[in-house]
Fold this sequence. Notes:
This protein is an alpha/beta fold. It is 34% helix and 19% strand.
Amino acid sequence: xxxxxxxxxxxxxxxxxxxxxxxxxxxxxxxxxxxxxxxxxxxxxxxxxxxxxxxxxxxxxxxxxxxxxxxxxxxxxxxxxxxxxxxxxxxxxxxxxxxxxxxxxxxxxxxxxxxxxxxxxxxxxxxxxxxxxxxxxxxxxxxxxxxxxxxxxxxxxxxxxxxxxxxxxxxxxxxxxxxxxxxxxxxxxxxxxxxxxxxxxxxxxxxxxxxxxxxxxxxxxxxxxxxxxxxxxxxxxxxxxxxxxxxxxxxxxxxxxxxxxxxxxxxxxxxxxxxxxxxxxxxxxxxxxxxxxxxxxxxxxxxxxxxxxxxxxxxxxxxxxxxxxxxxxxxxxxxxxxxxxxxxxxxxxxxxxxxxxxxxxxxxxxxxxxxxxxxxxxxxxxxx
Length: 384
């Protein structure tokens, strides 16, 4: 009888491991459990919630040589996003901010002209996105440098580093393959990508989380510095947490979005679903998701009352636009403003990727108070 029970228990563990492996949860489950059982710091002042919405913005998604469809996608954002946001404000009187990570390989001047105008009107900023495959360090360096210069010089986009005046950009890697993270080497090819990004003006990477793909890192729900490991892929798998009183280290700052297991949404009533902060038509926002994002407690070490929530989407896919530009996101903003902007327990700040970086650096430098005053701490707004 005992043998039968033991075999049954073994089968349960084997089945559980198979599920974890199939969704690549085994890569990050140890880190997740560590955060679940870690006691949160006691905070006796309001928690400032920095809410950052980043977009893998791809007007040419799943189409070829169809400029009419591209224009329709871009025009819908230019028209509908301000209409969606007009009644929504954070504690600082700012509308929700959308950061458009625009793909280098899909560049069209007219699209960037429209997005630059939208951003100039106060609805967000543009940063850099890239899909590449079987690439080289030299070609990647050339691609990123030219695109950053183009966005800055022709469209007035991107900030600049104060000392060098070099265009400064945030980055999202196409297919989540930062630093050649896939085991088969597809959709990147550059093992020293962190160094290339840094040297071409990237101030931080916003790619993660990448679950449920194999590109997900072991380190989760963190803001940290990653260092290139010569000749090795996925150098950002681990790193040194950004902390109050610390200083920049390694090669690139990695700013992650929330990653968790949602036990209230279970597959087949048993297995929790992965919460990877991805906003789509099939994964619309909800109050419980927003609570999970905030409870992920992503912050600079030593500054627990400044919490960063970074969610992501693919904003030009038709099946998702009714969610992103309609009632679901409208209700999400309302919930954020209702629960996380009461001025007593929480204070809400809608921020761009650039502002997130600036506020993180202010925390690192030991600055305190209202993070709103540090939105432009190092990197100034673009001059449209």
